[in-house]
Write a structure and sequence with these properties.
Shape: globular
Strand content: 15-25%
Organism: Sulfitobacter mediterraneus
Protein name: MerR family transcriptional regulator
Number of helices: 2
Distance between the termini: 25 Å
Helix content: 25-40%
Largest sheet: 3 strands, antiparallel
Number of strands: 3
Length: 70
């Protein structure tokens, strides 16, 4: 598995790297709907662990079908 995010780092809203998976608004929509990567909510601060972001990104991976239609 390729790591898009640093495994042991914590990311907060506004970190440029989070734009890789979605805008601040899109992340807020996903949190509201119970979708997207796992996160911590500490007061009003939202924190994502790099390991959770990598796990979520890996789960979104699509393997193209070989030689045919779906």
């Amino acid at each position: 598995m390729t790591s898009l995010f640093e495994q042991n780092r914590h990311y907060v809203l506004g970190d440029e790297e989070l734009n890789l998976i979605g805008s601040v608004d899109k992340l807020a929509q996903w949190r509201h709907k119970g979708m997207g990567p796992a996160f911590y909510k500490l007061g009003r601060k939202i924190i994502y662990r790099g390991s959770d972001l990598n796990a979520w990104a890996e789960a979104q991976r699509v393997e193209p079908s070989k030689g045919g239609q779906v």
